[in-house]
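Task card 7
Instruction: Convert sequence to structure tokens.
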Amino acid sequence: MTKETTFFSYSRSDSEFVLKLAKDLRSKGIELWLDQLDIKAGNRWDASIEAAITSASRIVVFLSPVSVASNNVMDEVSFAMETGKTIIPVLLDKCTIPFRLRRLQHIDFTGNYEVGVIQLLEVLGHDPSTVGSQKEKTINKKESKENQEYHWRLAKFTNTEDAYRQYLEGYPDAYFKNQALAAIQKLETSKNKKAANVPENVVVPNHHQDEDEDDYSDIDIDDIVDKASKRFELNGKILKWTIAVILISAIIFAIISIRNKQLKSTKIETATDTAVAVIPATPDQPADTLAKDPEKEQKPAILVEDRINPKWKDIITDEDSQRINNAVNFVTVRLNNLPQKGDYDENDKKSEVLKIIQSKKLAINSEDLVQFKRVRSIQGDENLFIYDYFSCKFKKEEDRIFFKKTTGSQRKSGYLYKKDEFSYVFLGGYSYNNDPLTSYNSENGEAGILYKISPGKLILIFPQTKYGYEILDFIK
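Output:
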């Protein structure tokens, strides 16, 4: 391990988030150690952990309700402190921070993931002027722009004059130079208005544009405020009339809507009364059965969501379409190629997952889906990880169904389209914590296929994700 290697200490329940973050940081050139990526098959886990902490220069500890209660995580923190390592707390979920860590400044990942990554990169000493491996000093123009972009986003998030000036000082040929200068001017103007106690919609000349221009010291601020107040008074009267017109329009619209519903109801009753058919009697048919009531003869209505919906074919890529049609076979091959792992319980996990995906597929409809409230993630590539159950929700929306994983660090969401009697096609994406939801057409877009394998279990197979493959296992 190199001198500047960072050790990641976390709870297994947070593995999904930590693995994603580790790969993102490594792509930026950060040297780090993570057991999921760096402990080789056959190595003793406890010896590997001790050696990794000893060799590391710092430790990032991920704080969540589960991790702060974990003896393993707290033992790693204690050992790191005893050996003089720098401790960097990262807050994943709201929890009671251990006493020994409370005085340390933490990085907050409970909100925006991207901002958290930028702040962590800064703490870890990421140099935006170098790209790729540290042995190579050749500057890659594309990645240099990406470095500027995340520093620009950080400046916008902070939204202070100092933040924008630091961005400009760090990048003399800044891509967002004009935007940064405009933001600084806007903040200065706003500050001048507040200092002069002038309403926001009154334009005050910018004294910093040119010190040699006209002197504005003779401006009568009281006169400006008086004129602005009169304008606000006029605007207030206009607003009152506007609200009155809106309310009257709403009342008229409501009356018309109620009247239309009454007319529609009357037409339905009339149609029902006249819909009795009279059929000539036959020797084999009693006369009292000739009058047919359409309501009694009507078949149960088919839910819109339960009809075959081919719209997904217009959205999905050809490559993803082929993958979901062969999802079971694709994942089965990947699972069978996993190596045997000695004393680990990987073999039992592998057998369990193979049994799940190869189960008989049952007929499924929208009424089935809305009953499932819990889901766990099974992720595989070179290793196999099975996580705890989290909350989720299915909701009917017109001719498709919306799905969302509502808790956990990584949250999938998207739409389900009925493919046939036994399956639904999922088109959506994933986001982290409270970040905005993403769609299939976004960078985080994914396609999958959903099956019912028992009255109390569904599976949603993603044959290809950013880091391998994934199976969502649903229970009620």
